[in-house]
């Protein structure tokens, strides 16, 4: 039997991974019909909205959806029909960290993957290639195969592949169009290799062949966790150095620049910050910690756990520095927090450092103004409620104001805290901001984006991550 030639793809899960990934597959493969299905009606309605008000903000995404929607890209809540018609199914559902039960706080909650897999087993009437795209613990593919094999009908074969997605939010479309690599894991059996070739031939429509890597299933699953763990470790390393810089008078940007010149280290991903966020880094490391412990490797678990602990320390250190600098109390003081998303160019707030900072400021009884160019207001309220379950929402809404612009947020504030590196914060009219703030006016740059010397000339007291206070 030769590899199946895929003409119909179904993607289960229309989120940050499934949506952009399959939109780009549709763009690059006009001969393939791609249907993205999701149980969430309002999410699908947004993907189908006539004015392209898509449910996620991602630069370049709207353009791709405009070119493909209705041509060979479709969004639907009819999960069963999508499964039934497809030759190949991407499983791109969410895999959050478990909140209760065994492995709570560390292990991935595989309930969504399992429900989607069972749905495939129930509905499929013909053979399918099932591709796990969501980041999952090692050996999830094995569990999926067991469920599918136990429930399949005669003449119905399922081949499972692992094809983790490496896109970063904010640059997803570019990452998908020009990936560093595409990774496909399969069983090393003739059928597994055929399925792998079927998927590889889809990517070959736009990805150079030497960037499509094929490996065993478990290596593929572990590589995704490993890549995210190593990236996060790099940020925690640079953030640990930023604390030394603040204590010694060195400048973390200069240090990062100098070490980045070493071709073995390289210049990317060395920006000190108020702490990494996003749906992946913390979750995947905790997953790796859980895996290490399950394998009876406590030293390995402790090693990776420290990456997350350093990140928590960095966030705590920053909010403490704000309080200390404001004469050790921020009670009743107005603080403008610029940025709420976990990084620039996304509206995603999962694990955003801003949430932790604002929670800390709330506990110190400050008044907080928030401005973010993309995050919906309901999302901000939901995140703050989750972060401080002991504070009633009405009380939070008295303490916190969501503003329509950076300038408005800074009005009458005693301090400005930059939590996300949105480009528009580099171009703020700081003279005007200064004129409308209480004095002394403080700026805390958690992303190293402002020109501290220029701001000091205006009159601001400026504190920057990884730099000692200016005397
Ligand atoms: C990450 C991985 O990069 C991606 O390959 C994987 O598929 C998903 O997880 P993402 O979380 O979307 O992507 O964004 P990323 O650009 O990696 O940033 C993660 C966090 O690290 C952000 O909070 C960002 O602000 C922070 N960061 C990143 C730094 O603090 N410093 C840096 O130098 C880079
Ligand atoms: P990610 O960042 O991994 O893409 P998201 O939470 O943005 O995660 O998206 C996952 C999507 O998967 C959600 O929109 C959710 O409604 C959808 N989903 C979860 N389980 C199922 C399922 N069994 N069938 C269809 N869609 C599902």
Instruction: Estimate the global geometry from the Cα principal axes.
Output: globular
Q: In this structure, how is the largest beta sheet organized?
A: 6 strands, parallel
Question: Over the alpha carbons, how many angstroms does the gyration radius reach?
Answer: 24 Å
What's the pLDDT, averaged over the residues? Answer: 95
Biggest sheet strand line-up: 3-2-1-4-5-6
Identify the bound ligands. Answer: uridine-5'-diphosphate-xylopyranose, adenosine-5'-diphosphate
Total count of helical runs of at least 4 residues: 18
The tally of strands reads 14
Please bin the fraction of helical residues. 40-55%
Q: What number of domains?
A: 2
From the 3D coordinates, which CATH architecture of the largest domain would you assign?
A: 3-Layer(aba) Sandwich
Helix and strand composition category: alpha/beta
CATH topology-level name of the largest domain:
Rossmann fold
Unreliable stretches covering 5 or more consecutive residues: none
CA-to-CA gap between the ends? 75 Å
Write out the CATH superfamily name of the largest domain.
NAD(P)-binding Rossmann-like Domain
């Amino acid at each position: 039997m030769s590899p199946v030639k895929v003409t119909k793809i179904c993607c289960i899960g229309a989120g940050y991974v499934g949506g952009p990934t399959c939109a780009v597959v549709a763009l690059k493969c006009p001969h393939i019909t791609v249907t993205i299905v999701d149980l969430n009606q309002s999410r699908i309605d947004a993907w189908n909205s006539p004015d392209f008000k898509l449910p996620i903000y991602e630069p370049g995404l709207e353009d791709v959806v405009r070119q493909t929607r209705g041509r060979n890209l479709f969004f639907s809540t009819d999960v069963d029909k999508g499964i039934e018609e497809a030759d190949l199914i991407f499983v791109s559902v969410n895999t959050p960290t478990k909140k209760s039960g065994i492995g709570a706080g560390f292990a991935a909650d595989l309930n969504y993957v399992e429900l989607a897999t069972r749905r495939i087993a129930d509905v499929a009437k013909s053979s399918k290639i099932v591709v796990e795209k969501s980041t999952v613990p090692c050996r999830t593919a094995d569990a999926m195969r067991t469920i599918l094999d136990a429930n399949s009908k005669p003449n119905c074969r399922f081949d499972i592949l692992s094809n983790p997605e490496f896109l970063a939010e904010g640059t997803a479309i570019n990452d998908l169009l020009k990936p560093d690599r595409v990774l496909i894991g399969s069983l090393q059996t003739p059928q597994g290799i055929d399925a792998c070739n079927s998927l590889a031939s889809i990517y070959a429509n736009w990805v150079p062949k030497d960037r499509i890597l094929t490996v065993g299933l478990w290596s593929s699953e572990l590589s995704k966790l490993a890549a995210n763990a190593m990236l996060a470790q790099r940020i925690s390393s640079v953030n640990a150095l930023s604390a030394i810089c603040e204590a010694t008078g060195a400048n973390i940007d200069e240090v990062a620049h100098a070490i980045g010149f070493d071709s073995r280290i390289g210049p990317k991903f060395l920006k000190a910050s108020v702490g990494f966020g996003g749906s992946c880094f913390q979750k995947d490391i905790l997953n790796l910690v859980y895996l290490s412990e399950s394998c009876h490797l406590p030293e390995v678990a402790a090693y990776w756990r420290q990456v997350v602990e350093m990140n928590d320390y960095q966030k705590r250190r920053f909010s403490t520095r704000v309080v200390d600098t404001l004469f050790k109390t921020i009670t009743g003081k107005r603080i403008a927090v610029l940025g709420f998303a976990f990084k620039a160019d996304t509206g995603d707030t999962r694990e955003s450092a801003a949430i932790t900072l604002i929670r800390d400021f709330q506990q110190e009884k400050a008044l907080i103004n928030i401005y973010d160019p993309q995050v919906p207001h309901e999302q901000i309220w939901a995140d703050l409620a989750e972060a401080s379950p002991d504070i009633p929402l009405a009380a939070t809404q008295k303490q916190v104001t969501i503003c329509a612009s950076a300038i408005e947020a800074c009005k009458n504030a005693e301090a400005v805290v930059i939590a996300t590196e949105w480009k528009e914060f580099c171009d703020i009219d700081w003279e005007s901001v200064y004129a409308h703030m209480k004095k002394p006016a403080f700026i805390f740059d958690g992303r190293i984006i402002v020109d501290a010397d220029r701001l000091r000339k205006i009159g601001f007291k400026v504190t920057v991550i990884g730099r000692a206070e200016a005397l």
